[in-house]
Write a structure and sequence with these properties.
With about 70 residues, this protein is an alpha+beta fold. It is about 60% helix and about 15% strand.
Length: about 70
């Protein structure tokens, strides 16, 4: 999932002090991870955990890895 409305988004996450301008791909990864975490807490689904871990592994193979890690920390 990645937005298509603009090239960059200003993302601020209170609680871990993340605040950066990030590209569409990074925005999509961060939003997906936060949505999966919320759904995992509600459903205790192993499938959602697998998806979460897959997205983390994907991001590690890209240039956005550090930004994603910082955002979800």
């Amino acid at each position: 999932m990645a937005p298509t409305t603009q090239e960059y988004f200003d993302i601020s996450i209170s609680g871990n002090f993340f605040s950066q301008r990030v590209c569409r791909q990074t925005t999509g990864v961060i939003v997906c991870l936060y949505a999966l975490v919320e759904l995992m807490y509600q459903t205790q689904s192993e499938r959602l955990l697998d998806l979460y871990e897959s997205i983390i592994e994907f991001s590690k193979r890209t240039t956005i890895a550090d930004t994603v890690r910082y955002a979800i920390d």
